[in-house]
Amino acid sequence: MSNTANQELKGRVALVTGASRNIGRAIALELAGAGASVAVVTKSDIAAASGVVAEIEGLGGRAITVVADIADPEGIKRMVAETIGAFGQLDILVNNAGVRPESKIEDLTFAEWRQVFSVILDAPFFTIQAALPHLVKSDTAAIVNIGGLTAYTGAAHRAHVVSAKAGLDGLTKALALELAPRGITVNLVSPGLIDTVRGGHSTLAPDHHKKHAAMVLGRRGRPEEVAAMIRHLVGPNGRYLTGQTIHVNGGAYLP
Questions:
Q1: What are the pLDDT digits (tens) for 150-175?
Q2: Hey, what domains does the chain have and what are their CATH numbers?
Q3: Which end of the chain is less packed: N or C, by CB atoms within 10 Å?
Q4: pTM value?
């Protein structure tokens, strides 16, 4: 949690999926640091999510752990209902949860294809639908989808992931136009190579990362740097930004 002296999100409620670790954890802490109450969503790592909640509460914030399988539309409805039951409102939605399996195209099954789409693209669709009746009641509602570098650069052995992430970019633009009359901003943040824990090892990364190893800034990003962008987009100084894809990648991809 940074800059807790500036509580620009005080009185707001945020729901962050995939918030038990890495970028999601950083987002939850950052929004809480700005004064928002946060629903910390996890599929199965209850201990880690509860740890994030404890960090927030230890610094004087409000948070709850929500256990939900976002590949299940009914689970998504319960997730939103639990958030509303705890806080009574919803102002900020961050669709962060994702999966990144690899498979050669000749080995990729339709079941594997659909599983990736169910998390990366279907889940934000269902979550936004479930959250919309509550977001429209907010005078500063904001949705942020978390994309990925390979949606713009491509990646071998990730046809399903790249396709789903590219679809998320399209969903963001379409909903920015559709929801603007209701005062809701919709943006996408696309992180580059971020120093996160994969499979228990912070240095374990897929082969396609080698292609983007030479960032202009010469280093990997920190989850907190991605979270800071989300804080800006959902805050009072981000109200004129909608339908945008913001690349936080240290220069690994220059559109």
A1: 999 999 999 999 999 999 999 999 99
A2: 13-248 (3.40.50.720)
A3: C
A4: 0.91
